[in-house]
């Protein structure tokens, strides 16, 4: 591993900053498709050549597929092959009870078509409801597709410690788990990190800038009133509330700003650099609507925090209440504050 790259699986290397795709799915403003493809290529040129998308992010696999084709035609297949693309498989909640090998195959074939490739680099599996027990079967069918060569690497997203242990015990060779990890949310740092370490599973982390809240823009700002601009901000405002509230959040921003000033970078860059240092973390996935922030985020890989920086940030974190439970336990409760804002059946009618 250098500061900028991480070998996630044997012979499979990614950039330590990954461009998140959710912000290109339409919920953060209209997408100009040709500009979005140009932005994806600008991100590649800035050193962020790994991308995150999902079967349920409307139009995003297609945009990344178009960027790959354009790189291949303008710069050659070798250059296009340097692009690494991580997708997800998120079966609809209403399909979990009747999930089948054919359903899984259908979604993988759809991702292959949209991403204009013969093999998916990494498929990250999500499961909405543990009361439906067939997630291990579904991972087994995904593993068959890996053995057939349609998928290179397997990962999970948002599984808690006992269920991840169950999947690993079934012999599924996972390279990664995608999850939320930030200066506000250290739920992955305890039991899940220990299990992941034992099994060689690395973390790919979203939410490192909390939907943009962890940035200079919010330093000194009053607590925002609802409605917030997009669903990501609604979701991360709940995380801030659980962390300890707006006043403590402002102390955290001040600490990140002071650290940033020592390194000549902004709050968002330090917030993501902090996540990159945590145990088991291979990469941060940072979303951006366009190239402005997407390119700026390459700087995350150049920051090396020192003991003084870490202490300053830890001192504020220690004053927080800390988020409750294992990874995604709060979000998984569909009647709770965190879970009730999610959409559960986004694959329906998409094929
Ligand atoms: N597995 C899952 O369940 C799951 C859940 C959530 C997200 N994800 C993945 O992770 C990615 C990122 O997570 P997220 O969607 O929660 O959002 P996030 O990365 O925490 O926040 C993205 C927002 O932060 C702003 N931002 C990015 N870099 C910035 C910078 N350097 N300075 C200031 N603001 C900055 C962007 O604003 P602009 O748009 O203005 O640039 C963007 O709208 C997603 O795109 C998606 O691929 C996965």
Key terms:
single chain, 351 residues, alpha/beta, TIM Barrel, 8-stranded parallel β-barrel, two-stranded antiparallel sheet, 13 helices, 40% helix, globular, binds NADP nicotinamide-adenine-dinucleotide phosphate, NAD(P)_OxRdtase_dom_sf, Aldo/keto reductase, NADP_OxRdtase_dom
Describe the structure.
- It is a single chain.
- The protein is α/β, with parallel strands linked by helices and 351 residues long.
- β1 (5-9) and β2 form a beta hairpin.
- The protein has an 8-stranded parallel β-barrel, surrounded by 5 helices.
- 43% of the residues are buried.
- It has 13 helices and 10 strands.
- It has one domain (5-341): TIM Barrel, CATH 3.20.20.
- α6 runs parallel beside α7 (191-199) and α9 packs across α10 (267-276).
- Helix content is 40%, strand content 15%.
- The chain binds NADP nicotinamide-adenine-dinucleotide phosphate.
- Residues 20-23, 28, 52, 157-158, 178, 206-207, 209-212, 215, 232, 268, 285-289, 293, 296-297 line the site of NADP nicotinamide-adenine-dinucleotide phosphate (NAP).
